[in-house]
Design brief:
about 450 residues; Aspartate Aminotransferase, domain 2; Aspartate Aminotransferase, domain 1; 8-stranded mixed β-sheet; 3-stranded antiparallel β-sheet; 12 helices
Length: about 450
């Protein structure tokens, strides 16, 4: 064994010791300890992997990034995965890719319409606006909080070219009807899978249905790199476009540290540039630099090994809360999924019925005072947010359910960091609240 490898082994051993000394979990004390809605679930393996990458000092995407991209694509059942610096960047790349001149008559152009919902996270919507496209909003269902597929045909127009949807809180949308609609009208479909990693629809993982799909690795998500995301596709041309847009807009596809992969670096003509201009500096798109670092990817590689157990735990935690809170269906709409869907839940949503003897703010305030974190369904009705005042858009029908969710819905966590004692405490806190208000 080389001296450097011996030193590495010693470093890793010390890192494991440091983890045990510095990252020991505190004992849960009901009413005093925080019950988070989400967060990092890790051990010494992630820290060792991070240190391993840092010792390489490659810094930008390298061996860990390439390993992660391959294994993540295999997990979802798609051909290509590109690691990026966030799920929001992944969504931006996905939409922007559809405007590429390389798509010919199928490219999206300014003023083309994109169907989506107003209930969700801003960066599902933002890329539509950032590419000068027009969002067309459709209402959602109560219970699933996904798009109402019965309204899709009412939303279509001659300008409609794409549909962009997220699986709300990990709950798969009605992919059977959506894909039927997509193929009937020749639309692009972008599948925002940021909250649904590990969810399954008709035996197939979500994130494998769209022409392009996206993932997020923010700490609250199913696996984390701290920051980070991915954009995925099985289409060779789309992958080429996505890579170009991610990497400054360049035409070259050489990975960092490699040259002349095409064997034609100084022997091509592009635009009105001189013949033989270095292909590494040819730009075919107006792009960005949205790459992730190898240190981020190293954490992701360690997390990916744990993903199956994370998914299992999320499902178990969700089932526990569902069983315990089912007694209160008189006051809450409990979450529901399609028969063909197996959600890998991001959170446990509860909709306070108008007939309940309390309001959402009452229960949220009570839970928060008892150290149980709650969250709204992100932006509620995004059209009511200050940022979107006066945007150019179209609403197909009314957004009554979207408004109802904005006013009545909250959610609590099911992430793997929740111990059984925490879940039991959550359930008992609901019991106490209901007893006080009924």
């Amino acid at each position: 064994m080389s001296k450097s490898n011996k030193l590495k082994k010693e470093i890793f051993k010390k890192v494991a010791e440091f983890y045990r000394a510095a990252h020991r979990k505190s004992k849960f004390v009901p009413g005093s300890s925080a019950v988070h809605y989400g967060g990092r679930t890790y051990d010494a393996c992630e820290i060792i992997s991070l240190i391993d990458a840092s010792l390489d000092f490659w810094l930008t995407a390298g061996r860990f990034a390439h390993d992660f991209e391959k294994k993540f694509a295999d997990f979802l059942g798609v051909k290509h995965c590109l690691l990026v610096n966030s799920g929001s960047s992944a969504n931006l790349l996905a939409l922007t890719a559809l405007t590429s001149p390389l798509l010919g008559r199928h490219r999206l152009k300014p003023a083309d319409e994109v169907i989506t919902t107003a209930c969700g996270f801003p960066t599902t919507l933002n890329p539509i606006l950032q590419n000068q496209l027009v969002p067309v909003f459709i209402d959602i269902e109560l219970g699933s909080y996904n798009i109402r597929v019965d309204l899709l045909e009412k939303a279509i127009s001659k300008k409609t070219k794409a549909i962009v949807l997220a699986h709300t809180l990990g709950n798969p949308v009605n992919l059977k009807e959506i894909l039927k609609f997509v193929y009937k009208h020749g639309l692009w479909f972008i599948e925002d899978n940021c909250d649904a990693l590990g969810s399954v629809y008709q035996g197939r993982r979500t994130g494998s249905f769209g022409h392009i799909s996206t993932s997020s690795f923010y700490p609250a998500h199913h696996i984390t790199m701290g920051e980070g995301g991915a954009v995925l596709t099985s289409d060779v041309l789309l992958n080429r476009i996505l890579m170009s847009l991610r990497d400054w807009g360049r035409d070259c596809w050489c990975v960092p540290g490699k040259d002349d992969t095409c064997r034609n670096r100084f022997n091509q003509q592009f635009g009105s540039l001189p013949f033989g201009y270095d292909h590494k500096y040819i730009y075919s798109h107006i792009g960005y630099n949205l790459k992730a670092t190898d240190m981020q990817a190293a954490i992701g590689c360690a997390q990916l090994k744990k993903l199956p157990s994370f998914i299992k735990t999320r499902k178990q935690n969700f089932s526990f809360l569902y069983r315990r809170l089912k007694a209160y269906e008189k006051y809450f709409i409990l979450p529901s999924a399609l028969p063909d869907a197996e959600p890998s839940w991001f959170g446990f949503p509860l909709f306070v019925k108008d007939s309940a003897p309390f309001k959402r703010n009452d229960v949220v305030t009570f839970l928060e005072k008892n150290k149980i974190a709650t969250r709204m369904l992100f932006g509620g009705n995004l059209l009511r947010q200050p940022a979107y005042k006066g945007i150019k858009c179209r609403v197909a029908g009314k957004l009554d359910n979207t408004d109802a969710v904005m006013n009545n819905l909250f959610w609590v966590g099911v992430y793997p960091g929740l111990e059984s004692k925490m879940l039991e405490y959550m359930a008992k806190t609901f019991d106490i609240f209901i007893a006080k208000h009924t």
